[in-house]
Amino acid sequence: MVSPVGAFAAPVITDAAGLGVLVAALGVDGRRVIGPVCRDGAVVYEPVTKLSDLPLGVIDEQDAGVYRLKKTGDSRYFAHAVGPQSWKRYLFPPRQSLWSARRRGKGFEIVKDTPAPAPEYVFLGVRACELAAINIHDRVFDNGDFADPGYLARRGRALIVAVNCTRAGGSCFCASMNCGPRAEQGYDLALTEIVGDGGLRILIETGSERGAAIMAGFEAPLADKSDLAAARDAVRIAEEGMGRKMSQGARKALGKSLDDPRWDEIAMRCLSCANCTLVCPTCFCTSTKDLTSLDGKTAERQRVWDSCFTLDFSYIHGGSIRRGTAARYRQWITHKLVHWHEQFGMSGCTGCGRCITWCPVGIDITQEARVITESFVKGG
Amino acid sequence: MAAGKKPRLAVWKFSSCDGCQLSLLDCEDELLAVAEAVEIGFFLEATRAQVAGPYDISLVEGSISTPRDIKRIQKVRRQSRVLITIGACATSGGIQALRNLSDVDAFVNMVYAHPEFISTLATSTPISDHVKVDFELRGCPIDKYQLLEVLNAALNGRKPDIPAHSQCIECKLSGTVCVMVAQGIPCLGPVTQAGCGNICPGCERGCYGCFGPKEAPNPAALSGRLLELGMDLRQTRHFYRSFNTNAGAFRDESARLESIDG
User: Measured between alpha carbons, how far is A171 from A178 in angstroms, rounded to an integer?
Assistant: First the structure.
């Protein structure tokens, strides 16, 4: 599926005004553009209709348990790293109705509703780690044994405008997960912001026929070699500025360290609040809820985001399997970094760093993996 | 419940402010449906008409704080097939359980002109300390949608969908940005049970813990973070001592902080 660069359209170079034209062009024909906007002290993914909706000059200072937005004189619109939300919110919404039913006699009948057509989203500002996360969900929700029609419908219609990171956040470690910071594939268009003497310039690369169709009506000069080199240099700054790094031996070490005393030590600090799993762009666990009308004549089954950090999540006949927080944290991190490989043939972590930043007490997956890996290496 | 016969509902008040009972009247759009589904046997807040027990469902508001309460709750229990406690008072003792940490006689002497007329207990305790409770609905006040869900589930013979997980999950589901991480605002959300409808974090305030401790909470870890955010030991202790001061995990954590503070 990887096409050579320039197979669909040659890269072009534009400026902030050109970006404004592009944003407007993305939002025609009934498409809904979702992109980064500032709300309540964070960059979140919400509807974008014009250039001024984007967080111009806004950067985020991120560390374990800390996120602060800062307005700077930076001319970039995408100088922030990833925020608390991910595209999961749109492709795999927090609450979904699965089916509804009507009582009939002593039983019930399923109400056959024609599902509303999936919205045609344009995701503007998808980072390399997020492309990797979407790729993971593509596998999870269509894996040969099981296919999720709702996800696939939304995903199939979504247009992806990636942004190559030119600044890394303090919790970022995508480079050590081989997931970024440059978007290599899986996008329709990819933007790279280049800040130079002449102000902001934006390289636009086209990665699909749909992307090429958008660019067909877009007038901009072709990028030359120096533009491409400047874009590469800009992304290299992000690559070299990663705040964190995943230990390379973590996959092997964690899988063989199920009795490490560190799990109990983590449990002393862990709130089991589930924030890490809900901000994670790849966590996909849900629970189902059966709701009834008060008169008992109709019922509905809903699927709602859940987390392996709740007691109820592992509740089966006789009680919860993972009663202690140590077992729950271990389940989460080993699924993410070890067993995901066995289940889906890939890592469940993309190095976005959200679980580190949005943990209220700042538990750091890279630090915990490092401590356990080092102890495994020493012990082994 | 016999087929064709409406289940009989009673609403009882103990030591409380009536706010939780009002949540039932506050159902407005759904109130007629509730009135259709049940026979209201006893609900003084709504009607003076009374139908004698037994009752299929009793909603109990308020805590046990007087000798008379102790006798009366036994009577209510005997008359009730299903007994559901509603609100922080009934489920943990309420804000009036702050008395449990002090000398109640000193308060009585200070407040009342004739303390000799006052018959009160030294403690305010949840209903479940005194009788068997079938379901506890948290909150100060309770959330009307959760109340409807509990009634709905009881009427339809199914398990109520009232998660015991953290407030954080409710914030994340509704897209609310974490006020503690993004703004450094102290918040009890990570140790508090969800259910309020995201009221405080939704308007950029920290959670006050109105719904009491979540399942298996870790308040000691949260307190460490609250101290780092600039709260002192006294403020942190008082953070846990409000509407659910007597709820196990909150009570124990505030006592632990007090023992450190000396």
Answer: 15
Whether A7 is covered by a domain: the verdict is: no
**Distance from C-alpha of B217 to C-alpha of B166, rounded to nearest angstrom:** 8
The answer to whether residues A208 and A294 belong to one domain is: no
Over residues A132-157, the pLDDT tens digits come to 999 999 999 998 889 999 999 999 99
Alpha helices, DSSP H, located in chain B:
19-25, 31-37, 67-79, 87-92, 104-111, 144-156, 167-174, 179-183, 219-228, 233-240, 248-261
Q: How far is the alpha carbon of B152 from chain A, nearest alpha carbon, in Å?
A: 5
In a structure prediction context, what are the per-residue pLDDT tens digits for chain B, which is 262 residues long? 445 689 999 999 999 999 999 999 998 888 888 989 999 998 988 888 888 889 999 999 999 999 999 999 999 999 999 999 999 999 999 999 999 999 999 999 999 999 999 999 999 999 999 999 999 999 999 999 999 999 999 998 888 999 999 999 999 999 999 999 999 999 999 999 999 999 999 999 999 999 999 999 999 999 999 999 999 999 999 999 999 999 999 999 999 999 998 7
Residues B120, B214: one domain? no
The domain containing residue B201 runs over which residues?
Answer: 167-261
Q: What is the largest CA-CA distance in chain B?
A: 62
Among the ranges given (A6-15, A275-284, B76-85), the one the predictor scored with the smallest mean pLDDT:
A6-15
Q: Do B169 and A278 touch (CB under 8 A)?
A: yes
- Residues paired with residue A15 on neighbouring β-strands, in sequence order: A201
Whether B163 and B196 have beta carbons less than 8 Å apart is answered as: no
A357 to B225: CB separation less than 8 angstroms, yes or no: no
* B51 and B70 both lie in a single domain: yes
First to last CA, chain B: 55
In-domain check, residue B102: yes
- Among B130, B156, B182, where does a domain finish? B156
Q: Is residue B185 in a domain?
A: yes
> B171 and B214: one domain?
yes
Let me know whether B150 and B115 are in one domain: yes
Nearest residue in chain B measured CA to CA from A275: B168
* Residues A193-203 as b or e (16 or more Cβ within 10 Å = b): bbeeeeebbbb
> What is the C-alpha separation between B17 and A21, in angstroms, rounded?
58
Rounded Cα distance, A190 and A124, in Å: 9
Q: pLDDT digits over A169-180, tens only? A: 999 999 999 999
Q: Considering CB atoms only, which of B148, B172, B191 is closest to A278?
A: B172
Chain B CB contacts of A68 below 8 Å: 182
Considering the domain architecture, whether residues B176 and B135 belong to the same structural domain is answered as: no
Structure ipTM over 0.90, yes or no: yes
Q: Are residues B179 and B202 in the same domain?
A: yes
Number of independent structural domains in chain A: 2
B203 and B231 share one domain: yes
C-alpha closest to that of A185 among A376, A46, A4, A369:
A4
Domain that holds residue A290: 250-379
- Across the interface, of B151, B178, B215, the residue whose CB is closest to A311 is B215
**Domain presence at residue B1:** no
